[in-house]
Design brief:
Blueprint (H helix, E strand, L loop, with lengths): L6 H8 L5 H9 L5 H24 L22 H13 L3 H8 L1 H6 L16 E4 L13 E6 L2 E3 L10
Antiparallel strand pairs: 1-2, 2-3
Length: 164
Amino acid sequence: MTRVLPAQILSWYRSQDGQWFVREMVQGMGGLPAERARGVLVGVQTLGLRASVHFAREGGRILFGSDTPSAPTYANPPGYNGYLELRELEAAGISPRQLLAAATTENARFFGLADYGTIEAGKVASLLLLRDDPLASTAAFDTIEMVMVKGRVVERGALSAAGR
């Protein structure tokens, strides 16, 4: 997060004012103590992960989409929730290969978008070049070497909060 968000924003997120949504969620759960509310949310997440793994193991078609932002808060930058979801799904037992396909080729096939989801000659590329193999682990998404959007390379420094 320190690479993409300015330090002042990260500091604010840690402040009492920046924690407003946590308080709102707890209030929406009947005023449960924060730790109990967190336990309820973790329990729901665990059940969802178990169901996802079972579905994948039984040959279900996995598609990837994220609800980022997952709450009415700007403290969840675009893409971050999806990244966390991929990591959690892998940790729960879905293979990195299935997850990469779910986020690329399977989504394109499902929506009938033959021009998307694969890398082929003649296509306009929007992709990430990774140093590590995403088929080995979703941790490879932490090793971005290059970003290409619609065939144009976007300099990594332009995406970093450090340069701002």
